[in-house]
Design a protein that fits this description.
This protein is mostly helical and 146 residues long. The chain has one domain: Homocysteine-binding-like domain (TIM Barrel, Alpha-Beta Barrel), CATH 3.20.20. It contains seven helices and two strands, in the order H-H-H-H-E-H-H-E-H. A two-stranded parallel sheet has the order 1-2. Helix 4 runs parallel beside helix 6 and helix 6 runs parallel beside helix 7. The radius of gyration is 17 Å and the shape is globular. The model has no long low-confidence stretch (mean pLDDT 95).
């Protein structure tokens, strides 16, 4: 998904759309947000994969968890990002599965977070962790629920 998005050579304004036109921080590179601001692009990518013969497409949600989205101060949008991403993928697959000889499926993508629970981000405090197990559990639960 990421390499396909890169081919569009998107600018900051593409990521922002109207809804986030005045957002207080840069959001270029937040590919998961495109399911909200540029669903046309995500839909086109899904169609390209299915046209190429894929039977399973993934949702555009690799980093759509609250922990990773905190890097953009968009952690509160995690559920919406996942829900919209699933809706887009489902819509495209439903169009293709109208032909019963071509079953297609949607897989929910859940990637790693931007914080690590197994290592300390502070070299002077090896026991410190930037995220707890419960925070990871809650972030992934919210992502999967959507």
């Amino acid at each position: 998904m990421g390499t396909m998005i890169q081919q569009y050579k998107l600018q900051e304004s593409d990521y922002r759309g109207e809804r986030f036109a005045n957002f207080h921080t840069d959001i270029k590179g937040n590919n998961d947000l495109l399911s909200i601001t540029r669903p046309d692009i995500i839909e086109a990518i899904h169609k390209a994969y299915l046209d190429a013969g894929a039977d399973i497409i993934e949702t555009n949600t690799f980093s759509a968890n609250a922990i990773s989205q905190a890097d953009y101060d968009m952690q509160d949008l995690s559920y919406e990002m996942n829900l919209e991403s699933a809706r887009i993928a489902r819509k495209v697959v439903d169009e293709y599965t109208a032909n019963p000889e071509r079953p297609c499926y949607v897989a929910g993508a859940m990637g790693p977070t931007t914080k690590v629970a197994s290592l300390s981000p502070d070299v002077n405090n090896p026991g410190y962790r930037g995220v707890t197990f419960d925070e990871l559990k809650d972030a992934y639960y919210e992502q999967a629920r959507a």
